[in-house]
Amino acid sequence: MLSDQTLTGYEPVATYGRYEEAQRAVDYLSDQRFPVQHAMIVGMDLRMVEKVLGRLTYLRAAGMGAATGAWIGLLIGLFFAIFTPGRFPWILVLWSVIWGVVAGAIFGLIAHAFTGGKRDFLSSSAIVANRYELRVTTPQAAEARRLLETGIPQHT
């Protein structure tokens, strides 16, 4: 994580509404042989956005636990199948997956029960910036501004 101290010696040369636009500006500077090691993209006015994906029911908690358990069971079963001599190693894999599903479903139910209904929804979180500043070290700032003004008119 960068501190405000890290921004010392850097001047904003352009501001963009989307990260891709700022990235394109740095790419343009690189194409113009500008020393891009003197540039940084800084996300400004950060906010956390949490998108609610749906309700978390006991059935869904058990299903998610079962799916996780199946993967763990598959991994354990494959490990046993590789190192156990015998004619039917796939039986070990199958039983490991079955037990993984059962154990995962039980653990999923128990974990959901312990939340006490305080968080019975699924969500996805992201940190999003309102705008992105392209900053360049002070000695190179004027050259970067000149190049961007002549080449990429999308900056503000």
UniProtKB/TrEMBL annotation:
Membrane-spanning ranges: 57-82, 88-114
Q: Which domain of life is it from?
A: Bacteria
Q: Describe the location of the General stress protein 17M-like domain by residue ranges.
A: 13-85
Any idea which UniProt keywords this protein has? Membrane, Transmembrane, Transmembrane helix
Origin species, per record, is Streptosporangium saharense
Q: What is this protein called?
A: Putative membrane protein
